Amino acid sequence: MARFGEAAEPTLIKASVPKQSWPLVINTWSFTNATEKAWDILFNKRGSALDAVEQGCTVCEVEQCDGTVGYGGSPDENGETTLDAMIMDGPTHDTGAVAGLRRVKSAISVARKVMEHTVHTLLVGDQATKFALSMGFKEENLTTSVSAALHEHWISQSCQPNYWKNVVPDPTVSCGPYQPVTSKEKNFKQSVRTEGKNYNTHNHDTIGMIAIDEHGNMAGGTSTNGASHKIPGRVGDSPIPGSGAYVDQFVGGAAATGDGDIMMRFMPALIAVEGMRSGLPPSAAAEVALSRIAVYYPKYMGAVIVTNIDGEFGAACHGFDTFPYSVANTALGTVTVFSVNCFA
């Protein structure tokens, strides 16, 4: 077992662990470099949960984790990469978020500026970019050769998959431009969305992170570039408090990843925290939050990570085979990847 601060290969295990003490960091997926950075802030530097979440998620933005966080990934229908992020402070319940952020790479840091320098919660689009520039951030092109190639390939495949329905020409074989169908033309079978058809483990991810510092202060945050080939202007669940992430200083925190267009309708992070408030252990609270979604959308893909304020943690998932998530605390002794089997 490596000492704290030393690099170590993450360990993959399929288990939960008993209640742990502070500090703690937990995040979605096997984004262990992000976990390591957050843990360094919490343990070695004895820093705040807010700093740990911001700097941990920033690692994924810089490393372009899975091509689904940060610049150069998930181009929209116009070929542009835009960013969504949020950060939430447990002790104050203050929250800052950005959505559809254009031409600025440091999405979660801009979100923190929204929290700390405005009384607003969410800024969007070009106005969020203008705010970021006023806060000293640099304007940069978020397109790379990789994201440009993804967009060109999508066009060559007749723009498949896409996120349109009840339009003409037929969006399953055409790139548009689209017009709404008239009531005379409407195919009611087409109007029923087949959830999950546009999503897989490679075209959408979010880093969602929850941290508890040595003083017991909690923070949570998310960062993503959204769904590949999304309709321009689309905002997913990640920057929405209670959906992408949620923390309650007296209960615990949760973060979600998956089919954001569906998951944001059910506020799974909030529901998971409320489940813990009612006495459920973290994994059970996560499963309850996801089960509610499955009643309406039995084929959706999603996962939730959860920790209570005592540092007991867990996760649940739906629509994948398994779901990995990364944890560091004093008991584990190193960044550890856990894996949970998904239901349905």
Automatic annotation (TrEMBL):
Biological process, per Gene Ontology: proteolysis
The keyword Ion transport belongs to this UniProt entry's keyword annotation: no
Presence of keyword DNA repair: no
Record keywords, A-Z: Autocatalytic cleavage, Hydrolase, Protease
Positions annotated as active site in the UniProt record: T206
A GO MF term: peptidase activity
Protein origin, superkingdom: Eukaryota
InterPro entries to which the protein is assigned, alphabetical: Ntn_hydrolases_N, Peptidase_T2
CDD domains cross-referenced by the UniProt entry: Glycosylasparaginase
Cellular component GO terms, alphabetical: lysosome
Binding positions (substrate): R234, V235, G236, D237, T257, G258, D259, G260
Catalytic reactions of this protein: N(4)-(beta-N-acetyl-D-glucosaminyl)-L-asparagine + H2O = N-acetyl-beta-D-glucosaminylamine + L-aspartate + H(+)
Site positions for Cleavage: D205, T206
Record-stated family: Belongs to the Ntn-hydrolase family.
Reported function: Cleaves the GlcNAc-Asn bond which joins oligosaccharides to the peptide of asparagine-linked glycoproteins.
Protein name: N(4)-(beta-N-acetylglucosaminyl)-L-asparaginase
Organism of origin: Petrolisthes manimaculis
